[in-house]
Amino acid sequence: MTRVLVTGGAGTIGAAVVKRLLADPAFEVRVSDQRLAPQWMREGCEVHTGDLRDLAQARAATKGCMQVIHLAAIVGGIANFHKLPHTLTEVNNALYNAVIRAALELDVERFVYVSSSMVFERAELYPTPEEYLPDCPVPLSAYGYSKLTGEVYCRAAHDEHGFPYTICRPFNAYGPGEMPDAEPGIAHAVPDLINKVLDGQRPLEIFGSGEQTRTLTHIDDIADGLVTAMSSPAALNEDFNISASRELTVAEIARIIWEVCGEDPDAFELKHLPTFAVDVQRRWPSVEKAKRLLGWEAQIEVEDGITATAAWLRERRAGAPEPLADS
């Protein structure tokens, strides 16, 4: 049995990854997260709660694990990137600095660094392939730059020490697990918009023109992509876009959410708020490399995924109890 460390395992994507691993009897899981892990995770996994920025804690979390999926980071919606640029840079850099050092010292067999589509925030080639990264303009946002720096850390550790890595870049993750924030833009767009519709906001407020595009990818698809990449010999020392392939405008996403929540399609109306200094205008990745090398592609249609996400959020708003592991 292979023991896998999932840093940030109590987060939205992290919990999906843990469930995906626990569904396979070949894996046992250790979660490292300072947030309180849900009951099903505490019952099914070993849980480490130390601060991974501390090298001693990173060593303790990693010891005995053959593989690491590194998700721990400060993330969030577009407003978060502008509100906390130094904090997220400081924290994210400290996390991968310590966790990669611990993984090096303890000779892990595979380190999966979960990067971000934001490394391509200034892309000019679509659909954007992995091999475009050296030619892509450097991210302007602190978040995008911090995630790109983590990729550089992995490659540098490989070049100097033979570090066995795989880089995975999720695109526009959404799904049950992320609660909206009272401040617009702190959470990601999907929970934020679902919450606005359920609150009765009319017209529905979005940032910018609504012509910006995104490629929404359900967390269960992302989790499956990460575990597939971790387990594949073909993914060793490679990087992958882990994404669906359907490009949608923000206005189209808002309409899907509106209709999934049971609102009258004819009553759909948007109010356009001023956007932020960094608001990616187009996000559409190539997914051919993951298909070719991993045999992996996303399976969950946006309408189905948003329907499940809206149902989950309705339950949370109604005060539903913590779900069980198989729910």
Description of the molecule:
Helices cover 39% and strands 16% of the residues. It has 327 residues and is α/β, with parallel strands linked by helices. The protein has a domain at 2-171 and 217-244 and 285-299: 3-Layer(aba) Sandwich (Rossmann fold). The strands form 4 sheets. Strands 3-2-1-4-5-6-11 form a 7-stranded parallel β-sheet, with helices on both faces. Strand 2, helix 2 (39-44) and strand 3 form a beta-alpha-beta unit. Helix 5 (85-105) packs parallel to helix 6 and helix 7 (189-198) packs across helix 9. The longest helix has 21 residues, at 85-105. It is globular. The mean pLDDT is 93.
CATH superfamily of one domain: NAD(P)-binding Rossmann-like Domain
Shape: globular
Distance between the termini: 25 Å
Largest sheet, in brief, is:
7 strands, parallel
Helical content stands at 25-40%
Mean of residue pLDDT? Answer: 93
- The CATH architecture assignment of one domain turns out to be 3-Layer(aba) Sandwich
Task: For the largest sheet, list the strands in their spatial order.
Answer: 3-2-1-4-5-6-11
Please write the CATH class name of one domain: Alpha Beta
Tally of individual helices: 11
